[in-house]
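Researcher: Predict the fold of Aspartate aminotransferase family protein.
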Amino acid sequence: MDARLADDLARMPELLENVRARAADLLAGLAERSVAVPPVPAKPLPLPPSGVGLDNAMADFADRWEPGFSGSAGPRYLGFVTGGATPASVAGDWLTSVLDQNAAPGLDSSAPDLERETITWLRELLGIGEEHTGAFVSGATMSNTVGLALAREWLGEQQGISIADAGVGALADVTVLSGTPHSSIYKALSMLGIGRDRLRTIPTLPGREAVDIDALDSALAALPGPAIVVANAGTVNTVDFDDLEAIAALRERHPFWLHVDAAFGAFAALSPAHSHLVAGLTLADSICVDLHKWLNVPYDSAIQLTNRQDLQVRVFQNSAAYLGLPAATPDFVHLTPENSRRLRALPAWFTLRAYGREGHRSIVERNIAQAQRLGDAISVSPRWRLLAPVRLNVVCFTLANNPTKPAIDKVTQDLTAAGTTFLTPTVYAGTPALRAAFSNWRTTDADVERIAKEINAGDRHLSGNDQP
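Model: Structure tokens for Aspartate aminotransferase family protein follow.
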């Protein structure tokens, strides 16, 4: 064994304690860490011919790289609908690496059973029926890709062929319909060989991002055969929701596969005041839910759900002498693109076991209230104007005067440089804008006040007692 590797093994408890202490320091300072750091190109070092050991590697990382990492796990990071990581999910993530289980095959570990239990808990949390089964994937893009792969196979089934065997070229013309599709839908269609151009956007309701049901009905009626419909349970700009029950009802007249992108909007189910927004979610044929958003687990965690696991096995089954054949309860190796992967479910299992439905409901409802609070502040600011109502946890707004892309980009750059908060630019209804996405369990009302003051360059607007 390499001498440095052998030394690190012998000192493992001490070294892990050093890592724990460093992690604790980072977490303790997270609230005041620079929320975003303007990237500065780093000069790469050559691969060392011999290693330096874990202690020196930690010191090198702390000196060269850590200062450039953002506080994205902290309370004022409002970009990309990025949740943080609850204490329990951090513990689960650490143990995931320590145990290093491959959850895809079911030959040597109970890890797949833990994943199945976690998926069951998530279905119950989100009010999705038992007819849906699921699997863990890396994020919303892969979840959407898996769901649309099943839709592609369903289209082939309608024509009496297996696309998994014959290939996408065997399909007749494919049409995908959606009102306000997320960019990952286009990416998934490209990867699946269906093609970005196969997606037709359907008119939305006036002043909304929700699809016009009558327009969708007419578009389906004009098609010569079955289609794929991608519905939204929470659009990225204004968190608008398609009427899922009304869309599902169209299947009485038109054949189509219903895929619902509910990456973060699915968690509206936890709030009694907002659960109506996801009514009908369980009627979908496939569902995308991203867990490293509002469930607040570390990155690389999402689930896909479907009521047609048979199609899923047909698409993703893997044949090898060292793997079992798909059974009544298939191994995950037969359900997703990966043949091997880490035990993604463990952080989610830990946070669900530790905090339960009520703990996560509290996160969701607090974030919704905080988004509303920032929206109220924006609505009375002379510098800004809201572009849409605050429906859930995202505030979409723009400059009151001259909202050009250069002007919005300048605001974004200034906020990033200040390090107090991080917002992403967007375009809504043709207008350059900003979006503030609340999904972090650490965010407090004091953070919202601080964010609002930074956005308004010191304007007093939240209450008469605010200090600049």
